[in-house]
Design goal:
It is a single chain. The longest helix has 33 residues. The protein has a two-stranded antiparallel ribbon. It has one domain. With 204 residues, it is an all-alpha fold. Helices cover 69% and strands 3% of the residues. The protein is built from ten helices and two strands, in the order H-H-E-H-H-H-H-E-H-H-H-H.
Length: 204
Amino acid sequence: MQSQHDQDMAISERLDQLAANAPTDTVTLSWVLDDLNERAFGLFLLFLALPCCIPFLYGVPQIVALPMMFVSVQILFGRRSPWLPEKLGARTVSKDSLTGLAERAGPWLRRIEALSRPRLTALTRAPADRIVGLALMLFSASILVPLPGTNTVPGFAVVIVSMGLLQRDGALVILGSIIGTLWIGTLIFAGASLASLIKAWLGL
């Protein structure tokens, strides 16, 4: 159980604490999930999505995308607490990476925290949060698309939605959902256009 102090702690501070709590130079995603505790759904998604916001970063987004999808599916089906299967939970992250992530993301998270407040809160709890879970699953899946820079926009969308869930701010949930949906639409349009070009080139 988290202490009241942990529950009241700002999100940016909680990420700093996560890095400080790491017992070894390398920790597993299961350890991260356990350390985040009661706020784990929103915080864990936020933690996984933040590296995806870095443009043209390869490897890490593809590692975290599957856990992001798995947790999003659990929100979709109304699970009360997140869980990772052993194979996904065994994926590791270094303490240095946790520290660097907290340092780089902290200023931006504090700006969002300063602007956010409880509003349209129905969007951040059941049953509306199940629709949000479906959106998060699609955004996370799009990170796996093997094209340059495809991780940045959906990663940013997941961060905004996660902040909305944590801050009980439905406006942020809407903003992140719009960003992610526009991105999915762009991918579908680009894919359809590419398929048409290939068919025309092959004379099909």
